[in-house]
Amino acid sequence: MAKRVLVAYASRAGSTAEVAERIGETLRGLEFNVDVKNVKKVTSIAQYDSIIIGSAIRMFKLLPETIKFANRFKEELKNKIVAYFIVCLTMQEDTEKSRIQAQAYLKPLLEIKEPISIGLFGGKMDYSKLSFIWRILFKGKVPEGDFRDWESITDWSNKLSERLLNE
Ligand SMILES: Cc1cc2nc3c(=O)[nH]c(=O)nc-3n(C[C@H](O)[C@H](O)[C@H](O)COP(=O)(O)O)c2cc1C
Fold this sequence. Notes:
two-stranded antiparallel sheet, about 40% helix, Rossmann fold, 7 helices, globular, alpha/beta, binds flavin mononucleotide
């Protein structure tokens, strides 16, 4: 049984942080002992049975601190139960094609450790949080809006909890 859980996330504009919090809240409600932390603030993973690593996607890649985190704790992760999730606009619509594309972003993490579960979630685009340059580049090409599907995030967390209890 893997009851001590760390949800470690990387986020730029805050939407992935909020998804990480929702996953944490859901697991807490199921009697798991959960910490939710930015990957940059994690100094040790020794006290956890399972690590859920989540990242926003920018320019077709995981945020760099996500991969740094996984590499920093590579040896310890071998003995932990691991799950991954990403938050991105590719998953604005949940289709077979978008899933294949989004899953490819996870390659650097998959090379480090096989997870027991992968969550692929739609993200949020808020132009007011972008720098002037990105706003100009994205305007008219990248849709603004919140595409996070909270039901699917909660559903994934519930299914993950069952897997964790069986580990
Ligand atoms: C500069 C920039 C680049 C992005 N590049 C991608 C991308 O390549 N693929 C994708 O699916 N989403 C991309 N997105 C969308 C983000 O993944 C999405 O907005 C996510 O919710 C951001 O998470 P955050 O709020 O935690 O930073 C990009 C967003 C920004 C602002």
